[in-house]
Design brief:
Layout (H helix, E strand, L loop, with lengths): L1 H20 L6 H21 L3 H5 L13 H22 L4 E6 L8 E6 L2 H12 L5 E5 L4
């Protein structure tokens, strides 16, 4: 690799020196083109002698597993849903604190409504979220 870098530097220096000493009339563009091709060939030539068979045998598979954010996403979704449900209950005149715990595996998410009007809050919440999608619980607020 060091030898290749040295070859490229020498090619650039030689091309630059030739460019300085050549006249600027007549065939200047064609000489610049030849110098550019010389530099390009000096860059590409070492690639022809590289051992490409060793590169083909490399494995690009990774043992790293992607991170599992499903718990974070379900927790965030439950938090957002409980905030929205509190707003809808407040719009209906029911003051309630809502907690939704995400379910895991075969268990349903658990909705807990803490309110002075448990029957009305439970009825409206079941209407909004669906009765069979969650397990329901109501509690009275502590005085």
């Amino acid at each position: 690799m060091k030898l290749w870098a040295l070859n490229v530097c020498v090619a650039c220096i030689l091309a630059g020196a030739l460019d300085l000493f050549l006249p600027r009339q007549g065939s200047f563009k064609s000489i610049k083109t030849v110098l550019a091709l010389y530099i390009l060939v000096s860059v590409v030539t070492p690639a022809a002698g590289a051992d490409w068979t060793g590169l083909a045998s490399l494995s690009f598979e990774s043992d790293v597993q992607p991170a599992d954010y499903s718990d974070y996403v379900s927790g965030y979704a439950c938090q957002s849903l409980s905030g929205q449900l509190e707003e809808r209950l407040a719009a209906a005149g029911i003051q309630a604190q809502v907690e939704i715990a995400p379910g895991s595996g075969q268990t349903l998410p658990e909705v807990t409504l803490c309110t002075d009007q448990p029957e009305e809050a439970l009825e409206l919440a079941k209407e909004l979220l669906g009765e069979s999608e969650y397990s329901w619980q109501t509690t009275e607020p502590q005085a």
